[in-house]
Design brief:
The complex is a heterodimer of chains A (1105) and B (364). By secondary structure, chain A is of the alpha+beta class. Helix content of chain A is 45%, strand content 18%. Chain B is of the alpha+beta class and 364 residues long. In chain B, 30% of the residues lie in helices and 19% in strands. Chain B has ten helices and twelve strands. The longest helix of chain B has 28 residues. The chains are: A alpha+beta (1105), B alpha+beta (364). The interface between A and B is large, with 123 and 106 residues. Strand 34 of chain A pairs antiparallel with strand 3 of chain B.
Amino acid sequence: MKRYIYINHDDLAQDLYCDNRISNRKYTLWNFLPKNLWEQFSRFMNQYFLLIACLQLWSLITPVNPASTWGPLIFIFAVSATKEAWDDYNRYLSDKKANEKEVWVVRQGVKKLIQSQDIHVGNIVWLRENDEVPCDLVLLGTADPQGICYVETAALDGETDLKTRVIPSASMGIDFELLHKIKGVIECPSPDKDIRRFDANLRLFPPFLDNDMCPLTIKNTLLQSCYLRNTEWACGVAVYTGNETKLGMSRGIAEPKLTAVDAMIDKLTGAIFVFQIVVVIVLGIAGNIWKNTEAKKQWYVEYPNESPWYELLIIPLRFELLCSIMIPISIKVSLDLVKSLYAKFIDWDDQMVDLETRIRSHATNTAISEDLGQVEYILTDKTGTLTENKMIFKRCCIRGTFYGNENGDALSDAELLNAVSTGSTDVIQFLKVMAICNTVVPIQSNTGVISYKAQSQDEEALVRAAASLHMVFVNKNGNVLEINFNGLLLRYEVLDILEFTSDRKRMSVVVKCCLSGKIYLLSKGADEAILPLARSGQQTRTFSEAVEQYAQLGLRTLCLASRELDDDEYREWSLMFKEANSKLVDREWRVAEVCQRLEHDFEILGVAAIEDRLQDGVPETISTLRKAGINFWMLTGDKQNTAIQIALSCNFVSPEPKGQLLLLSGKTEDEVCRSLERVLLTMRITNTEPKDVAFVVDGWALEIALKHYRKAFTELAILSRTAICCRVTPSQKAQLVELLKSCDYRTLAIGDGGNDVRMIQQADIGVGISGREGLQAARAADYSIGKFRFLTRLILVHGRYSYNRTAFLSQYSFYKSLLICFIQIFFSFISGVSGTSLFNSVSLMAYNVFYTSIPVLVSVLDKDLSENTVMQHPQILFYCQAGRLLNPSTFAGWFGRALFHAIVVFVITIHSFVFEKSEMEEVSMVALSGCIWLQAFVVALETNSFTILQHLAIWGNLVAFYAINLIVSAIPSSEMHTIMFRLCRQPLYWTTIILITMAGMGPVLALKYFRYTYRSSKINILQQAERLGGPILSLGNIESQSRSLEKDISPLSISQPKNRNPVYEPLLSDSPSATRRSIGPGTPFDFFQSQTRLSSTYMRNSKDN
Amino acid sequence: MKEDDPTVLKAEYSPSDGWRLTKIESSPEELTRVDEAEEKFTQQELPACKPILTPGLVITTLISIGIIFVPIGLGSLSASEHVVEIVDRYDDACIPSNGDDEAAKRERLSFIQNAKTNKTCIRNLVVPKKMKHPIHVYYQLDNFYQNHRRYVKSRSDRQYRSPGSEGDTKTCAPESEVDDHRPIVPCGLIAWSLFNDTYGISTKDNPILINKKDIAWPSDKNSKFGSNVYPKNFQKQDPVGGGKLNESLPLSEQEDLLVWMRTAALPNFRKLYGRIETDLEADEKITVVIQNNYNTYSFDSKKQLVLSTTTWIGGKNDFLGKAYISVGGTCLFLAIAFILTYVIKPRPLGDPAYLSWNLNSATR
């Protein structure tokens, strides 16, 4: 499908496409109620409760007052509807703000200030410097005479550098005034989300130009949400508007996230539901049989001889209602409550405050804290997430002299400063290369302060460093560079730029000195790409040593070199270069070849070392989380080399021989397929070896692999604990998340830029770093944190506690519901299977909503292990990841406990209160008290740490139970008038209660003790170690001694779930103190090179980037 | 962190301004105790007591349960032993035919359902041990489902309480009103099936007075049943269920009805008939004159007369004592078992060697 856009045609075809109104809203005022109710009722639990509530309206079958179900139900629904409405209102407000922003648009040939939402396709939009682009535009004119403008695309793809955009050749040179009147047609594809492609044609109508089609590419566009920078004005025609822009299309609707715990609870609920149906059917049949054989004889029941058609259904339905409490309605309320408290704990945490910006961590999504404890894969962005996104020139080695070794900063090294001021030629040449050999754009502000915009952070660092050493890159005027050295203005004309590719690993510029007319080739690049090309006779050993030394320190190194060219040589080469550049086939490769002809016989000038500062604690964080069994994937839009550098320096992958990198690359399907097979093969072999294998893939190969070899790639994804994906687009990031999710892994995506938003929304958990790239990621994310290292705490402390607490709370909720329900079932056996409720409405409602909810709610304060212990033994997270604390078998334990306790309560009650004491209300109250006592002790037994609040809630609840019942007993009209007073006076009551409690808890205590001591889990051992004091100290020592480099191959007592690859062993248990042992460019790590010839073709082909 | 600089910034999101940093002022000196407590709560660092199940703790607990429970059990067993109880099943003896065949059953039914037959029946009982007053006289019904759903719900407390709610008989079906739609007071199946056997007890020489005052719960008399609600249209129409009521007495004084209307949760139950305020000597022969009116013959049931003394745990009931002794015994047994395992196979608590990740590296 194509769309044709008529430029500046106010009355033509405007209605065909939507206006520029952005809408992220889910509801409108009118559809809110039905839509919201529909959504709420699409959950099984809600349907169930609604059904029960409706059945209860039929008084023939209801055992209790219908209000006991309707009240909580309406309350629950009101709460979640209000929450939804509030969120949607906020979305509406932010949309409105964006929509009502004012922009200059040409209307009837005149520029007018209109609201952003009124822009239509075909309108010409005028932007000024630092304006945000309101919709996708095709550039028509800029202030720059050459038709260039600069945009910042951080919001779109997360890259902070400035990008150049040019106007299409057709509109080149059109006068400012005439731009208002320009007419034409653009043929472009229907809206899509590909932010790297825009294949369209432009034809201007006379009188502007001839009828030639002018091709348009992404280079000619200004996309929504970018910022116009460093350009006075620009104008363009709107091609995509509103939600149809590239950004709008890639903005997926954030689906509500469901945690694994929630899914498990739903599953268990389903199981209970099936169980309930079975019980109902069995009891229903039994009830009908009993009615027909026994009850008909019992004259006092006075069963009518004729019965309505639904007679047979009545008893089963009564049991259905009686058993409906098996699925506790309170569980949803309790879970929502505790979940918001987990989120609050994250917000409150003082240890997760970014000390520099003083920004607190924030949980936007309050519903998914448990998932943090179950994370298996972390997919992380690189720039700004792992690194601080600040490159700083630290040291250098010029002609064998090391600068900056003493104080760690060459810029303040007196020796170097001295050399600069004395005018040492070597140093000056070195500085010149630093200042010139780049693609940096200097921007001089009104106050005269020069700032640099660079595609590469390395280049920016070098230029800055040169500037502070008095070699200031002042201005770039077309091809002429101006450099101010100690007040002396030097001018160079850039003749050619030999661009950087990851294959060449170097870039060069050919410049002509305007003063002397001499032509120089200036190069910089990785050591292995420069040093071998030194002129014969130059010793490069000192440089190699320097590189080695810097790499040891974790610095990125660049070798700088230069060569003076003959005019003839250059002219000859220049022709070849032009020819290669205009080739249509294999251009990259040819250009590289031509470049090589010039880049030889270098005069090596020196080595510059740049620090790409990792964020604080990144290596430690990664190694700790690795130990906790979490796999890391790095997804970055950056170049392969840079990605690998960072990966090495932050413990992401290990250097040889411990680690191995497998390269997955290729340009065509075949190549990718072969590469994939090879990588897989190696992966399968090495999987049994204690080796840290990671695969590296670039965006192109990934695209093919995902499209055609999804299965093989999925297998690779499962086998590999580490992956580096470079040059991936935002939607590819999201696809990778999707892939891992489809393998049933819990994924956490962390990033900081707008390009991470989709991945963050796609992942089970999205974490945004509120960093330098703005707050888009933080806003889209479920959690926003200030620094990468807070991730440890977020997962190990908050995630783990949340999981543990929810696991207990949910199972306990089922336990207490089952307990009372079993008693009801047992009672039906002695009440003629007629569906009589032993408990009255008040007790039943209060039991579920009040007596049993409050003690368990304080379990949000429970800590099974102290935070320090968990941090020391991150492996313990395995229990959460594998879902050890909430699964069908633990649930069976609680089910059994409920059954056992129900038997205890029921048997003891009906045998103690026999004959003349078997009054209904009394028996019911004894059984209820028994349940309350038991549940108080169950909570107490399962609590690991008692704070004052827990004591208050557990024991206070018992007191409250008596207080409430005494009050109710004092009301004459209540069914249980005076019951509690009568009971409390009887010694029999108290002896019965004590008996129930002890008979119920004794075996549970004994069993728990036995398992705790003789079948103890790792959690138990750590608890014992932590609380008995002694061994915990030695524990730390053992831990530090036992940093095994190898994989845990032993038959672990902990078995792996789902037969996955080991997620648990501390593969990379590197000492956390040994940080940043990184490796500079050229330090050997093993790319998969077994078929050298083949892979060299890949290398050649992968140059395109 | 707070010590360096007491101000903390908080990032807040508002739809109008986006993200914004707010300063939260707090100074350590100004922290009150409440703030401190709040701080500890928000940081999840409230002081906590963290008990663990050490052998000492568990074994002590089990032993103390055992030591406390066994004596209590013995105590309640002996209390139960001291209760003197006479139980006499009379339903099969006070009926002319006792066969099992259908004819006998029909005969029994027609006997009991005929209002005209003489249903007086005389039982001779012997007091096994001296019974001190008060001696409670109960009737016991077995296999009688007062807890049947249809039965237990068929009542109207509002009607019983006040004369104004006379017509409030919705819940009483099928015994809510007579044919001409006048309400039955008291309505409902429970009242309608009122037990109506009577007992007269005498020794050789003189009758023993059975005191029928105050057999119902005081609360029932005072508030649950109105003192100005009189029976109306009760048992006036077929089918006639159980006993009839004296229409000149208000419901609150019909104590037999009040006792009956306290429905039993179990199918075998006793209800208080009256009290004997004199002692009965051992081996004394007593004669009971029973009016066997109540129909339990249409279903498989028993009627028994019970004379019983009481102690602190109530009537005769060995269950509690036995249960206490067995729970106590079990706890003692478990304690001993745990002590033995502890001695034979001690296992240090919290030994890091048991951690699998240490286990592996240690062996390497």
